[in-house]
């Protein structure tokens, strides 16, 4: 592993999301300067403007010169760019544009933070990196095409690449987690809307645990040219998470659970819920990851126990609810 003092500068592309915040915090904690890149400057200023180690840049993925300019001077690019859930066809298209710009800028390493979608249905339990990639959904095929572009770019024009796959995630203020409504509901003592079934053992990674792993990978040359997994802290059911959150908040659980038939019905009026239907198999037959290869490479990985992660997520929801009340008062 490379020494922190000799590690090159890292750029976080699509930095405004939860993963970007986690990785930025880990880079800052390691005493490393970094660049955050997004389409709009204001969200980046709001989140990272107070960190003297953060350099803020914007880019336009449709402009090759803009991509290259945003990546110039970086050793490592971490790709976190999201797309609207109903526009997954953009994933490989945007990945190709980014790859072209990274190579033009002389970037040496690229980490794509990916998902379990390319695997399709789990054929083994747990799933390691040798599992067949046979997605049966459109979103899985688009994520597979994105991954292939990254993996096929390894060793070309001086670029080394890595795909780090994560399971579903949660954490303080992580609004794009489908557990976010649970913490909001518990904080308010209100009903939480959930997508079921909620009694199947599932895996979630606590988002603040992701940053330190990515920071280490940016200075681990032997990690590249492959796929690695980062698993959660074991498995847990959604019901257990909800019951714990409501208990910690001092409320009885109030849950409204929508299964696949209701998702189809609600999807007639809500585009996001309509898009969730094809991925519903991940709730009935979850993909649970084996990250023994990552641990063999990096050593022990700190993972926040679910009890602690739920408590911290609830505290953030309580704080946000209090802030909203103060503003409206």
TrEMBL record:
Residues 13-220 form the NAD-dependent epimerase/dehydratase domain. GO terms for cellular component: cytoplasm. GO terms for molecular function: aldehyde dehydrogenase (NAD+) activity. Pfam families: Epimerase. PANTHER family: NAD(P)-BINDING DOMAIN-CONTAINING PROTEIN-RELATED, PROTEIN YEEZ. This is NAD-dependent epimerase/dehydratase family protein. It comes from Trinickia terrae.
């Amino acid at each position: 592993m490379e020494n922190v003092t000799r590690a090159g500068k890292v750029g976080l592309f699509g930095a405004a999301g939860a993963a970007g915040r986690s990785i930025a915090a880990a880079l800052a904690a390691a005493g490393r300067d970094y660049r955050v890149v997004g389409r709009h400057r204001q969200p980046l200023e709001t989140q990272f403007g107070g960190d003297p180690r953060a350099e803020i840049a914007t880019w336009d993925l449709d402009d090759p010169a803009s991509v290259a300019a945003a990546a110039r001077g970086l050793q490592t690019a971490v790709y976190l760019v999201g797309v609207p859930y109903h526009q997954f066809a953009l994933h490989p298209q945007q990945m190709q544009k980014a790859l072209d710009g990274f190579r033009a800028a002389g970037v040496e390493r690229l980490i794509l933070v990916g998902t379990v979608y390319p695997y399709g249905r789990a054929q083994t339990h747990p799933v390691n990196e040798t599992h067949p990639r046979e997605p049966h959904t459109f979103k899985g095929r688009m994520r597979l095409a994105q991954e292939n572009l990254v993996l096929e770019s390894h060793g070309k024009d001086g670029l080394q690449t890595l795909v780090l796959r994560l399971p579903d995630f949660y954490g303080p203020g992580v609004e794009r987690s489908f557990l976010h409504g649970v913490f909001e509901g518990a904080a308010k003592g209100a009903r939480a809307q959930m997508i079921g079934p909620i009694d199947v053992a599932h895996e979630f990674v606590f988002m603040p645990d992701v940053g330190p792993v990515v920071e280490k990978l940016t200075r681990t040359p032997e990690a590249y040219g492959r796929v690695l997994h980062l698993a959660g802290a074991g498995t847990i059911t959604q019901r257990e998470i909800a019951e714990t959150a409501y208990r910690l908040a001092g409320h009885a659980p109030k849950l409204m659970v929508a299964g696949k038939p209701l998702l189809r019905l609600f999807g007639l009026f809500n585009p996001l819920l309509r898009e969730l239907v094809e991925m519903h198999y991940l709730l009935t037959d979850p993909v649970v990851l084996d990250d023994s290869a990552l641990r063999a490479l990096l050593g022990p990985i700190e993972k926040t126990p679910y009890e602690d992660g739920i408590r911290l997520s609830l505290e953030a929801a309580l704080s946000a609810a209090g802030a909203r009340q103060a503003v409206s008062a």
